[in-house]
Automatic annotation (TrEMBL):
Protein name: Uncharacterized protein
Molecular-function GO term, any one: carbohydrate:proton symporter activity
Main location: membrane
Superkingdom of this protein's organism: Eukaryota
Topology in the lipid bilayer: Multi-pass membrane protein
Keywords from the named record: Membrane, Transmembrane, Transmembrane helix
Localization, UniProt: Membrane
Record field: transmembrane: 7-27
Gene Ontology annotations for the cellular component aspect, listed alphabetically: membrane
Family annotation (PANTHER family): MAJOR FACILITATOR SUPERFAMILY (MFS) PROFILE DOMAIN-CONTAINING PROTEIN (PTHR48022:SF59), PLASTIDIC GLUCOSE TRANSPORTER 4 (PTHR48022)
Keyword rRNA processing applies: no
Pfam families reported in the protein's UniProt record: Sugar_tr (PF00083)
Amino acid sequence: MATRQVLIRPLLLPAFIYALGGMPVIWDQDIFFIEESPRWLLLVNRREEAMAGLSRLRGLPVDDPRVQHEIVENEEDIDRTAEEVSNASFWIIAKETFTKSPKLRRVQHSVLT
C-alpha cells in the first residue's frame, strides 16, 4: 500500500495542473525561448539580425556564402510576393492560398496549431 502511494504521489501535481487546464499555460512559457524567424526579421527590415539568426540556425558563420545566398533568396522572394499581392484582388489571393500546395500547407499548419 505504501509503495503505491509513493508511486502515485509524484503524478498528482501534473494531473491536477492538467485537470485545471494549466498545461497550455506551461507550454506557452516556451514561446519566450523561441528565436524569431529570419524571414520575419527580413520582413520587418532587420537584416543583420536575420543574418545572425540564420547563421546560428545553420551552424555557419555570418559571412558564409550559403548564408548570404539564402538571405538574398529570401529577400527576393519577399519582394516578389509583395509585388504579386499588391496587384491581386482578394479573390485571387484566396484562391491561391487554398489551392497552391505550399500555401495550403501553411494554412493547415496555422489552423492545426
